[in-house]
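Sequence only, no structure available. Ideas?
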Amino acid sequence: MPVFEYTGRTATGQTVSGTLEAKNKDELIRLLRKQRVIVTKIKKKPKQINIVIGSGVKPVEVSRFTRQFAVMIEAGLPLVQCLDILASQSTNKIFAKTLADIRDSVSSGSTLAQAMAKHKKIFDELYVNMVEAGEIGGALEVILKRLADYREKADSIRRKVKGALTYPAIVGTMMVLIAWVMLTFIVPIFAGMFESLGAELPKPTQIVINISNWLKRNM
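Reply:
I predicted one. Tokens follow.
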């Protein structure tokens, strides 16, 4: 249903404004009249377009959810109640909406695996298959614990790899920057000195000077 932004006046002459859902402008005016508000301005609120790259949910969030879910199931809480609590606690709106959708599907009679399979970008095939095996075998909390262990180890390895790659990337960037500064500013000074002396330069030195000259012309 469209959302409208409105400005109006109350019976006492006070200016009020806000947003309200309505089928059209006429219905909005009728709704506000019931509240004794005379509309002076109406504008349809533009729809927000959210561009999400990937699933919009971080792997660590799925790992945390899996661990909490396992603890709740082991404590004997009903499946739907667990999903409801975890959806309300999630600070990621996309993940919260996903969990709410899974909760509604389970409430409607779907299995947990079937409900999760609808969100393949967040719950991969391995995850769904293991949950299905846990449901069939009556050991869902055990499977969720194993999934949590597996995902937490994978998250730890991922962080270590990123950390290991960060240092070489910084060093490489610094080396390129230093080389650029030397070729652009320092080498031309020495090139001028050599030229004034009229000395014949070794080939490696001449190559470096040629590279420096090319950089100066093209950058």
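Residues 3-44 form one domain.
Hope that gets you unstuck.
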